[in-house]
Description:
The chain is an all-alpha fold. It has helices spanning 6-32, 34-38, 49-77. The longest helix has 29 residues, at 49-77. It is elongated, with a radius of gyration of 22 Å.
Amino acid sequence: xxxxxxxxxxxxRIFGVLFxxxxxxxxxxxxxYDPVLNDADYILGDGADTRVQLGALCxxxxxxxxxxxxxxxxxxxxxxKPSPILDDSRYTGVDKxxxxxxxxxxx
Length: 107
């Protein structure tokens, strides 16, 4: 196995930080949105507007980190050849017009 280059290590660190931030911002956003999601009188009453605004900010950061993880990961993933198992031409049970194999009920 090859030793990773400095650029690969830096890319892996950036990916790890962005990946961790996706979880942190998703959970924080959900917790901050709690008054809107669970309080029926939030709209009519004096709500916790600052919490909701911080939750919205977390959601924006979540979107940015999701895009960032894809951008950082793309140069790594594009170097791999796709598996022959993923090639739909070898699977004869799928109609070329459908997106997925037909589902059958098992009883």
